[in-house]
Structures are given as C-alpha cells and as structure tokens.
Specification:
The complex is a heterodimer of chains A (259) and B (204). Chain A is an alpha+beta fold and 259 residues long. Chain A has seven helices and eight strands, in the order βββββαααβββαααα. The relative contact order of chain A is 0.11. In chain B, α1 packs across α2. Classes of the chains: A alpha+beta (259), B alpha/beta (204). At the A-B interface, α1 and α7 of A face α6 and α7 of B.
Chain lengths: 259, 204
C-alpha cells in the first residue's frame, strides 16, 4: 500500500538554516518519527504563515507533506514556545545546548519518544529555573540512557564485581565505572569520586523534578559536568559547540550597571 | 562530481565554473550557465565584472566607527554632519543598514555587528563587532541605542547580551516594535508575536 502523502506530527524545533531566497531548512525532532529535516517554504518572508513558529526550542503540532528528498512543512501550530525561557540569556544558551546534543544523538527515521519527552521535560525545568545546572546533568545522563549508551554505575565493567564504597574510575570508552583493581589501557580513563558516583546513581533512579532539588557544592558540580560532558562528547565524536558560549556566560564578569 | 571530471571542458572554463559554484545559492548547473553567459559577454562587460570584483576586494574596508563596509573610513553615514549623533542603531549585517536607510525615517548612526551570537554554529561574542560597540558607547555621547537585531532566537540572545554588557547607566536601550506584519493574517500569527502585538497596541 502506498504511504499517505501527508502526515501529522508533534515536534520540537532544534534549528534551521536559510535555504534559497525565502525558504528554511528546519531540523525537527518529532515524537514518533525521530529527527526530520524539512523545508519551510517561504518561511523567511515576514508575512508567511510559518514565520514565528519555526524558532528553535518551540514545540509544535505539524502537518507535513512527504517530498522527494525532504518533507515539506504545510502547517504548524505552537503547543509551547517556552516564551519565559527565551527571555533569559542563560535559559536560551542552555536550551540550545540541549538542542545541539539532541541533533547529534537523534537519528533520522528512528523514533525515540523517550528522548523527545526528555527534551520537553528538561526545557520546562530550565524555563522555571534557568540557573539549574542539575537539569543539564540529568539530560546528559538520560540522553545516554535513551540512546542505548547508559554507563554502568553498579559493577566494575572489567571484573564485573559489585563496586565497593570508595573512589573509582570512569571511562565512556569501556562503558562506565571501573574498580581501582582493574587498569585497562584507556586514554579516556579518569578518577570518579564516591560523591560523584552517588549523584550519578541518583540521576539514574530519580525523576527530573526530584533530581533538580539536589543541592551540591561547586567542586562536585564541576566534576559531574566534566565527567558527563566528556562522555557525551566521546559518543558524539565531536565537541558540543554551544558549550563554549554557555561557559562564557558562566564565567563572565558583568558591568556594575547590569541588574 | 567536480568540473575537473567533465571531459571536454577547458581548464580555464572548469576553473570559472568551480569558482562560481562556491557562491551561495549557486549549484553546479547554475554555475555552468553563468560561466557560459560570461563567455558570451562582450569583452568590455566581462572585464568590467572582473574589475568590479577586484576593486571591491581591494578597496572595501570596515568603517572605523560603525564597522559597516565602505570605500573610505569613516563611511558616508558616519561622516555626515546632518546625522543625529546621539542615537545609534545596532544591526546584524550591512544589508540591514540599506533596509533602514530605505525607510527614510531614521537619521541617526549605525553599528554593524556582522552576525549574531549563534552558539550552535560556534559563533560567540568574540566573533562579532561587539567590543567596538561597547568602546563607542563608552567614548561617544550616545543617548539612545536601538538594538535592531532580527526577532529570532539568536537575534534576541544577541540583544540580551548587548544589554548585559553595555556598561552605561544613562543610556536608553530600545528595540524595534514586535507585532503583525503589513499584509499578515491574525489567524496564522504565532502566540508570541500576537501577544507582543497586544503589548504594543496603539490608539487609533
């Protein structure tokens, strides 16, 4: 049976680029079709019915038409534009960081509804609290999980012995945590403190709102950020470019007049 | 397939096609059509085109004031004594200056950023002409800054960044009105645009 010419989908906009004089090439992550690249015909014109709908970090109900090489967006209706998040520079930077990771991990024509739900849940938390770093750590950890790359946190990946309380080591290359007795040749091997392991396990078994209530000190926060972003970058195969702007904002010194 | 692989094409023609193919929006077929059009041009027209390209690359510089592209620095706008020097309009690209000038309703100065902050594309504040803007705000007697970046997520992020870093208490910072385009339709307008149009409603 021939496939229908049109279909409807729920999607979050990850980004777009200009295509020809007035069109946009839009990268979407849909709930049931995975990543989709689609053309927004005439979407760059100020009186287009699509203008304003296709901004990154917007969740939409969409009507699409199957095209020869790429699908075409025929209609879009906003479900959530995360308008409050987009009024905060840190919120935008964090949202784009999530979008870039999702673009990297999401595969075309490969449905991953859990990843879609993770994205919209995390955007909602960041919208409520743009300063939340734990929301990013939760996203990074569960991004690996829903992509089938969940790191092992309870047993040594080499000797399979249950991990004793204490300092361990971690490597995305071997798939998670190693006890101190095992020392494979691995350039990605790095120390993992007991406190960081406990927080990773908490991220593993808790829901997002519960995980975001956890308050940790700066050193532990830095260790987790470095560890998870190393794991994400390792599996992605390249740097997350939006991370440098996020770091810039974290470390910036503002003029005294800014309130 | 590159032009080098096309048998029968002369090396100089292949080179021209390759160079035209590098232009934005020009695919291999369009590049071939343009190349054959240039071959058929009268000699004077073809040399005038080549001369225009050479000249623009040799003569165009950044205006030391507004960072717009110009033949001589400072540019025509910055050196015009009739312009209002207390107001500065910050735009993304040189083309935005032309669009603003077409309105004939703005008589102040400009500052061209040459892009917007685009974290996903690896473009941060350091790649834009932001420090030059902050230097102007510190040095010159500017009373109002109109941040006229595009109303996109990246344009808004750039506007927020400018507001955070501009460093002056006594300056009025505005942006262009958000709302419905002329010829647009309420039915198809997204919620954000419509709510901003409501916020900016005017008495008639």
């Amino acid at each position: 049976m021939a496939r229908p010419k049109t279909y409807r989908c729920e999607a979050v906009v990850l980004g777009y680029s200009a295509l020809s004089e007035a069109d946009l090439l839009v990268t979407l992550f849909t709930r049931h079709q995975g990543k989709v690249r689609a053309i927004g015909k005439g979407a760059r014109r100020s009186n287009s019915k699509l203008v304003g709908h296709l901004e990154p970090l917007t969740v939409l109900n969409m009507s699409m038409v199957h095209g020869r090489s790429m699908d075409i967006i025929s209609q879009a209706e906003v479900i959530n534009s995360y308008a409050t998040l987009k009024e905060d520079l840190i919120g935008i930077a964090k949202g784009l960081y999530l979008a870039e990771m999702m673009d990297g991990f999401g595969a075309e024509a490969n449905a991953n509804p859990d990843l879609f739900q993770l994205m919209i849940d995390t955007l909602r938390v960041i919208e409520a609290d743009p300063e939340s770093e734990m929301a990013l750590r939760y996203f990074e950890y569960h991004l690996l999980e829903v992509s089938g790359l969940m790191p092992e946190l309870y047993h040594c990946v080499e000797c399979r012995e249950e991990l004793e309380p204490g300092a361990h080591r971690f490597s995305p290359n071997v798939g998670g945590t190693l006890c101190l007795g095992c020392s494979p040749e691995d350039a990605h091997l790095r120390p993992l403190s007991l406190r960081a392991l406990k927080v990773l396990r908490l991220l593993d078994r808790s829901q997002l709102p519960e995980a975001c209530k956890l308050s940790i000190d700066d050193n532990l926060s830095l260790e987790l950020k470095s560890l998870l972003s190393t794991a994400v970058t390792y599996w992605l195969g390249n740097e997350i470019r939006s991370n440098s702007f996020l770091e810039h904002l974290r470390n910036e010194t503002l003029p005294e007049v800014y309130s | 397939m590159t032009q080098e692989n096309i048998s029968g094409a002369s090396p100089s023609l292949s080179r021209l096609v390759q160079e035209l193919n590098r232009l934005p929006g020009i695919g291999p077929k369009s590049a071939q059509r343009l190349a054959y059009y240039i071959i058929r041009l009268p000699d004077d027209d073809a040399y005038a085109l080549a001369d225009a390209i050479t000249s623009v690359k040799q003569n165009i510089v950044f205006c030391e004031e507004c960072q717009n592209l110009t033949d001589a620095s400072p540019c025509q706008v910055c050196s015009d004594p009739r312009r209002d020097r207390t107001i500065i309009c910050v735009v993304e690209d040189p083309l935005d200056v032309l669009a603003m000038e077409r309105t004939r309703s703005y008589r102040g100065l400009y500052h061209v950023l040459h892009g917007v902050i685009s974290p996903i594309n690896g473009i941060g504040p350091d790649q834009l002409k932001l420090q030059e803007l902050f230097n102007r705000l510190t040095r010159d007697d500017i009373a109002e800054m109109v941040v006229a970046t595009n109303p996109t997520l990246e344009g808004e992020a750039t506007a927020m960044y400018i507001r955070r870093h501009q460093g002056r208490e006594d300056i009025k910072i505005t942006h262009l009105a958000r709302g419905l385009p002329v010829g647009g339709s309420l039915e198809y307008t997204d919620e954000t645009t419509l709510s901003r149009a409501f916020q900016g409603r005017q008495e008639i």
